[in-house]
Design a protein that fits this description.
Length: about 260
């Protein structure tokens, strides 16, 4: 039963009055005697309530007996609780406003987990957008910075083959040859023949490339960095302990193989 259907069924005052009067099972005649509407109108309203999942009906001799469905009230109560949480959190929390609807639409699903996934998606969008903006200020793309940063994380002498970068940092960059040529032309890395495999190019970060990365890290942190600083040290520590564990569990769901990290 959907929250929309429940609310729509109860929007009519006469129909809502019938529902409220079903404190115990009753027939159409019983209900018509209590309300200033015809038996036909009572029957039509009960039909809507039954279709919405608010009321059950069962035959009893030549009559049909109607009664409330307790689980329908629980769905409405859960929706009201979710809306109360939204009011406490503030109107900007659009994700939380969907929690009650998820619970009513699919009660077998943990809607709290779905909400977390929605939060991760929105946070990820912000992180990528901000990182692109920071990279652009240095005349680079997010993909360029990801590649240079992977070389930096290897430590001195900051060199590797592209295949090793892919294995070590799960990076799979489209248009690799053209990207490497542009970074080399900018003086941020150099390419040479790999002595161990002459078919592969050895990539090495230049002093200029290292300087650009250091400036980005020291002076060009995105908005999300400053947002995280607004959390307490204990809150950041909690995230730092939970997120690696979550990443391990997600890796396991993907068959222990983390997919290549693709940036455009």
């Amino acid at each position: 039963m959907s929250v929309d259907a429940l609310l729509a069924a109860l929007a009519d005052p006469a129909r809502r009055g019938l529902f409220e009067s079903l404190t115990e099972p009753a027939s159409v005649s019983d209900l018509a005697s209590r309300h200033p509407i015809t038996r036909g109108a009572v029957s039509q309203h009960l039909k809507v309530l039954v279709e919405a999942g608010l009321v059950d009906v069962r035959p009893q001799g030549r009559m049909r007996i109607y009664s409330r469905r307790p689980e329908s009230l629980r769905a409405l109560a859960q929706y009201a609780i979710a809306m109360d949480k939204v009011s406490e959190a503030g109107p900007q929390d659009a994700i939380a406003s969907e929690l009650g609807k998820w619970q009513a639409e699919a009660p077998n699903i943990d809607y709290g987990v779905l909400a977390l996934m929605m939060y991760f998606t929105q946070i990820g969008h912000h992180v990528v957008s901000s990182s692109e903006a920071v990279a652009e200020r240095a005349g680079l793309s997010f993909a360029d910075v990801a590649l240079l940063g992977a070389l930096r994380r290897l430590g001195p002498p900051y060199e590797s083959t592209s295949s090793r970068l892919a294995r070590t940092f799960w990076i799979s960059l489209p248009g690799m040859t053209k990207r490497l040529g542009r970074l080399e032309a900018a003086g941020l890395l150099i390419r040479s023949v790999d002595a161990d495999d002459r078919r592969s190019a050895l990539l090495r970060l230049t002093d200029k490339g290292l300087s650009v990365l250091r400036d980005l890290v020291a002076n060009q942190q995105p908005a999300e960095y400053h947002a995280l600083l607004q959390l307490s040290a204990a809150e950041r520590e909690q995230l730092s302990s939970l997120l690696p564990r979550l990443l391990d569990l997600i890796d396991a769901q993907h068959g222990q193989r983390r997919p290549a990290y693709r940036v455009r």
